Amino acid sequence: MDRSLYIAMSGAKQTLLAQASNANNLANSQTTGFKSDFEQFRAMPVYGPGHPGRVYAMAERPGSDFSPGPIQTTGNDLDVAIKGDGWFAVEGENGKEAYTRSGDLRITPEGRLETGNGRAIYGDAGPIIIPAAEKIDIGTDGTISIIPLGENETTVAVIGRIKMVKPDLDNMEKRNDNLIYTKDGSVPAASVDVNLVQGALEGSNVNTVSALVEMIELARNFELQTKVMKNADDNSGVSAKLMQMA
I want to staple 194 with a disulfide (CB 3.0 to 4.6 A). Which of 61, 86, 116, 146 is the partner? Predict the structure, then answer.
């Protein structure tokens, strides 16, 4: 296969993968607590028998942007946003502890406290269960207090505390379920240095303008790669005619 054709083909394929990652960022520009993904290209040698004489383009996700998104006031008692650094502990894949900034909480009919996408919120002793209540209050330290159903405001019961952690970001990675995990599989202890705001939500940190510009650049890059492939094919056809004449 012509080397220029192979390089252009691999470049076009990886451009489509980068476009998919960028499209995912755009699709989640309004998702609560979403963290955008980076993407990058690099040239990789093709290893095999003998010396690696060919290269190909490879797109990869070097990491995610963990910067906080804007905080918007909602007035909903079950909406909470972390102020500054930190993460909520939730139930991730295979029951592992994972982390998120999504604070759009809800209570299931069984009383389990979950995020808006159905992830159980962890307390200091596992998933939090909230009994029927007249009112729910979540303190800045994550402490959950309720007025039990049928009781007056003088009767307040403390249910538990939302587990919030503040691990080293160098040990954090985002996986395909859009949750954050520790790279080494460790479980950070709850931190008293993380504070939250009740009645507010953290928005996505996706910059829609930058994502749209990136989409245009990737589309132009894909068009360029297809032109290179066509030119390589045309050159191959011309070479074949010259060989026939000879």
Answer: 86
Q: How far apart are CA 168 and CA 86, in angstroms?
A: 10
Closest residue by Cα to residue 222 from 70, 1, 65, 17: 17
Per DSSP, what are the bridge partners of residue 40?
A: 60
Structure tokens, 68: 């906080």
Q: How far apart are CA 103 and CA 197, in angstroms?
A: 10
| Residues 219, 20 contacting (CB under 8 angstroms) | no
- Look up residue 228 and give its two tokens: 């290179």
Domain boundaries of the chain, sorted by first residue: 3-65+206-245, 71-202
pLDDT in tens, 164-179: 999 999 999 998 888 9
Work out the number of other CB atoms within 10 angstroms of the CB of residue 57.
20
- For residue 60, the one-letter residue type is E
133 and 147 Cβ atoms separated by less than 8 Å = yes
Distance CA 49, CA 40 (A): 28
Q: What is the pLDDT of residues 15-49, one digit of tens each?
A: 888 888 899 999 999 999 999 988 766 666 666 67
Residues 6+ apart with CB under 8 A from 146: 130, 131, 133, 134, 135, 136, 137, 156, 157, 159
